[in-house]
Amino acid sequence: xTILKDLLLASDKTGVVAAVNLYENRSxxxxxxxxxxxxxxxxxxxxxxxxxxxxxxxxxxxxxxxCGGNYMMKTxxxxxxxxxDERIFMYGDRIRSVYPRKKSRI
Length: 106
What we know:
Order of helices and strands: HEEEEEEHH
Strand order of the largest sheet: 1-6
Strand content: 15-25%
Oligomer: single chain
Largest sheet: 2 strands, antiparallel
């Protein structure tokens, strides 16, 4: 978590950071890494799903949404774009938290 915090605070342009999620029993296989949302039909394209963690995968990647519970967002950005929508159950919260902020360039 310290590494994520340091990444978040390193640049004014960074608003959200997240860790790569690996499968429990397959320690080097990526479960989720974030992705983009197709703006025409709102389908989700996840990056690097089910591939081995390797040096070819970038450490810094711009995405429409992040996956997993290990993400951090700057308080200013969180407040400016609106807090959590309590009607959205977990898993959808990350898309709701990150995508509108990227779209509005916050």
